[in-house]
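Regression test case RT-17, inverse folding.

Input:
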């Protein structure tokens, strides 16, 4: 399968069969994330993998309740990857101070998507989760105040009918060669 075919095949998966993912495969996905580029190569990511059913359930109870309840479907995922950032690294101070860009969020987006695409190749469905109680997630692991829980990625083998086709804007609406024609 070409890279583009793999990218086309990936869809967010929110329904999973009850089957654990071998740690070896989870680690392969994290390896793909580990190799991602990052501003100044600071690699501001750390990954906490929840694959113990009791800990996973407790985590979801804490972080996906109240207004975050729509994300509670991740309790059925075989594993949840908690992506923790270290935003206090020098590249990020320069990035946010001078450029006004939080590079660590870009870095984590790239690393996370590497993970997701590797999972896709292994037949593992994923769903990025940005809607969760990040403060409670931080507390759950007793993380330093200097760390930030940026996102979760739920992982599991897809149940049948687990995906929907989401439309994308056509190329001509999003790409511009050489100038802004007033449509950006
Ligand atoms: C940073 C980010 C955060 C997201 N947060 C959530 C979320 O909290 N809950 C959810 O169900 N999907 C979440 N998604 C998945 C998007 O809804 C999904 O990628 C989008 O609708 C396109 O659908 P597709 O992934 O199936 O192509 C998130 C995706 C990204 C990239």
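Golden output:
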């Amino acid at each position: 399968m070409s890279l583009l075919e793999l990218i086309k095949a990936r869809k967010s998966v929110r329904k999973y069969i009850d089957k654990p993912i071998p740690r070896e495969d989870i680690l392969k996905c994290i390896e793909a994330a580990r190799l991602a580029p990052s501003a100044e190569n600071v690699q501001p990511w750390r990954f906490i993998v929840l694959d113990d059913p009791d800990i996973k359930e407790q985590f979801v109870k804490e972080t996906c309740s109240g207004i975050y309840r729509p994300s509670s479907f991740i309790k059925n995922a075989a594993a949840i990857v908690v992506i923790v950032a270290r935003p206090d690294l020098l590249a990020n101070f320069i990035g946010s101070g001078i450029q006004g860009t939080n590079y660590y969020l870009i870095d984590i987006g790239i690393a996370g998507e590497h993970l997701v695409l590797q999972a896709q190749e292994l037949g593992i469905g994923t769903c990025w989760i940005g809607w969760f109680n990040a403060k409670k997630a931080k507390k759950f692991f007793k993380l330093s105040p200097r760390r930030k829980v940026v996102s979760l990625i739920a992982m599991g083998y897809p149940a049948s009918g687990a995906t929907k086709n989401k439309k994308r804007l056509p190329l001509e609406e999003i790409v511009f060669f050489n100038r802004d024609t007033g449509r950006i």
